[in-house]
Amino acid sequence: MLKRVATYIGYGLLWLLLIVVVVCAERLVTKNEKEQLVTTTDITIEGGGSNPMINADAVSWWLKEHNAHPEGCVLEKLDIATIESVVSSHNAVDRANVSVTYDGCVEIDIEQREPVARLRITGYDMYLSRDGYMIPAEGLSPVHVPVITGDYKPLFGKRYVGYAQDVTRDTIAVLEDSIQRLEDAKVPHYNAITANNQALREVRRSSPKKTILQSKEVYEILKAEFQERYGRAVEAHSQTDRNIRSEIAKLERKQEELRLVKYNIEQQDREFRALRNFVLSISNDSFWSAEVVQVVATGGGAKPMQIAIIPRSGRFTVDLGTMENLNKKLKTLRRFYDNGLSNVGWNKYRSISLRYDGQVVCR
Question: How far is CA 187 from CA 191, 200, 244, 247, in A?
Fold first, then answer.
């Protein structure tokens, strides 16, 4: 019995000690938060491949610009969520996580986006990241990636920030909504056609029927009046029907115009995806990522997009033609590099064309 009591007392003292430790620790933490200042900021940046667009100094400057730099702040007043939000708002940052240590060190872990090309057509200067995110180049460290030039015009604007496919999705959603609204606008006209037909049937049903007591002369008069009335009704019905169907045709023409716009946008989206996949294939290949300096994109939309590349070696331009089989064309070009140019010299030609399947035309 005494042994059991001693055991209970021991457990009670142990729990009491644990409560005292927790309370003391909480008071120490509370006191530390009220007195401890943020002394250092440790910024760790990952991702970006071999082409980082930001560094720790750039992130520190970004925090200062947004009045969110933590150094000198008391831990109790430190707003970790705000710091994380400010860091994440940087266009080059994909994800950010912020934490703080007991001794006042704010740790910022960043995953940055990886650029695979730089879009520098008229009015545009932005990076295309591996995941399809468009990032304005202003304020970022220059990186060595292929530059896309030419007269190609993407769907997104010159100051756009975000995923390119989002522009396509939102634009098509607006167009589809407009097409549906026009379809809904046809309903009253279809109802009007039904009512117009019903009105003519009512006139037709009013045709006189000869009764037993009715004279032939009276019936003929009534019949003649009906024929005149029915003739006018048919003419009015035809005119009304033409007017209604003309309004429906106007709505259908507008729908067709919008469907054509939608088709062109979808075509542009397919071309941009193909262009993005092409520069991705370049960035994934150690040889071509070092060799391709510039990608020239022309046309697009109503006219099929044409692609040419300007390599680092030689003084020639390579015309790849349309977006079809670009990877296959690159393989053909690589074989020509290894088996042709290495023998005749890199400066012999000014242009190389791979427009046609399996053919290499040099000038």
Answer: 6, 20, 11, 11
| Angle in degrees, CA 150, 155, 157, rounded to 5 | 85
pLDDT tens digits, residue range 96-147?
A: 999 888 787 889 999 999 999 999 988 899 999 998 999 999 888 888 899 9
Give backbone dihedrals phi and psi of 106, rounded to 5 degrees, phi first: -90, 120
**CATH architecture of the domain covering 36-112:** Roll (3.10)
Could you tell me how far CA 293 lies from the centroid of its own chain? 26
Closest CA to 60 of 85, 76, 83, 38: 83
Type of residue at 203:
V
Task: Give the number of residues written for the chain.
Answer: 363
| Inter-axis angle of helices 80-88 and 56-65, nearest 10 | 110
Asked if residue 85 lies in contact with residue 63, where contact means CB atoms within 8 angstroms, the answer is no
pTM for this predicted structure: 0.77
Q: What share of the chain is helix, strand, coil (3-state, %, to 5)?
A: 55, 20, 30
